[in-house]
Amino acid sequence: MLKTLKDINVKGKKVLLRVDFNVPTKDGAVTDDTRIKEALKTITHLVDQGGLVSIVAHFGRPKGEKNLKYTLKPVADYINSKGYFKAQFVEDCIGDAVKAARDKQSAGTVLLLENVRFYKGEEANDPEFTKQLASGYDVYVNDAFGACHRKHASVYGVPAIVKEKAAGFLIEKEAKWFDKIVSSPEHPFVAIIGGAKISDKIGVIESLLSKADTILIGGAMAYTFLKFQGHTIGTSMVENDQMDTVKRVLQKASEKNTQILLPLDHLISAEFNGAADYAAGVDIPDGMMGLDIGSKTAMAYASALMSAKTVLWNGPMGVFENPAYANGTFSVAKALASLKDAITVVGGGDSVAAINQSGMADKVSHISTGGGASLEFLEYGTLPGIEILK
Ligand code: AMP
Fold first, then answer.
1. Set 41, 131, 197, 296: catalytic member
2. Which of 2, 88, 229, 342 has the fewest CB atoms below 10 angstroms from its CB?
3. What's the CA gap between 269 and 275, in Å, rounded?
4. Which DSSP letter does residue 223 get?
């Protein structure tokens, strides 16, 4: 069973807490602190219960080498400037610097350890590095949902050797929603899958084929489906090496009686950043690329959502970063937000940015903090970083 924070006593204990502080920054300043805020409940709880907390996290991709471009110090400074909690930055995540800071640690101060990916042992889940990372701690807590699909030392190695371990509040919440979607979704269950590549999401699509009643396909991946069906797609983004995948998906969908809806019309342009034109049919003229679903498709997708009791959304319907091609994505967000009686889950990555930009974020049941992690949870029904806590 997955232990949660209510099941453990951390008073006076040294706690190693893994969080996801991989926040977007610009010129060294934090530009979006959603991930920090999502971890605050767990941090505050551990501190209030008398735990001596050290936070371990990764930031960017320093590829196993110390590179101060990826230091977590600005994140510690940001946390202190906001008064979220009292963070003391430690210039290493293992060894003497950590031990010295921990020996002097006062109640209420949280040690924020330097980027764990400065060591190759993190991503390699090296046993020696894992031992060093776990050294001196009584309890391990993981609240980094966004990293739980990775068998890294700070996610997978440490909980295998620390006796007392638990999931933080964020993982508990994420696992609850995704578990519901995977194990006992109420029907009709409608999934909306968009984004750039079918090859990135094929695992999820295949697992949804036996769970969902309807799958709405949008984004660039729709053109690979349409091309397979013999439609013209102009210069739209396409994965020619995925035709067999599409064939398999459509075959399985018909066996399982899962309805797959594809775009009926499009917003198109001669260039990626060009002005929007309209293609009223499924076919896209030569020399033009599809960049968003058209209004007929948006209406058809909204009406497919109307009776849904469970909705999962992953991936935008078009190039929503450009306002000229954001309509399809925003209309899906609106349709989802208007459902009164449904469980609506938005799975990580670009769909989160899209739901935030659409202003509908507070009208859905759950917005996941994990992109890759949410996709893998849907595909496999759990994640390595969660299983190891059990
Ligand atoms: P993903 O990370 O797979 O969810 O893909 C998201 C990205 O797909 C976004 O950056 C979108 O701009 C991009 N995208 C969506 N629709 C299209 C399209 N029709 N053509 C090119 N890129 C697209």
1. 197
2. 229
3. 6
4. H
5-170 domain in CATH 3.40.50.1260? Answer: yes
pLDDT value at 312 more than 90? yes
Q: Which tokens go with 333?
A: 């967000």
- What is the band of 41 on the pLDDT scale with cuts at 50, 70, 90? very high
Instruction: Answer yes or no: are the C-beta atoms of 267 and 277 closer than 8 Å.
Output: yes
Which pLDDT tens digit goes with each residue over 107-153?
999 999 999 999 999 999 999 999 999 999 999 999 999 999 999 99
Give the pLDDT confidence score for residue 352 in this predicted structure: 86
pLDDT score at 34? 86
Ligand 1 pocket list (CB less than 6 A)? 195-197, 200, 219-220, 237, 290-291, 315-316, 318-319, 321, 349-350
Query: Domain 177-379 class?
Result: alpha beta
* CA–CA dist 355, 345 (Å, integer): 11
Residue boundaries of the structural domains of the chain: 5-170, 177-379
Please count the CA atoms within 13 angstroms of the CA of 134 that sit on its side-chain side: 26
Report CA(248)–ligand 1 centroid distance (Å).
23
Predicted local confidence at residue 283, as pLDDT: 98
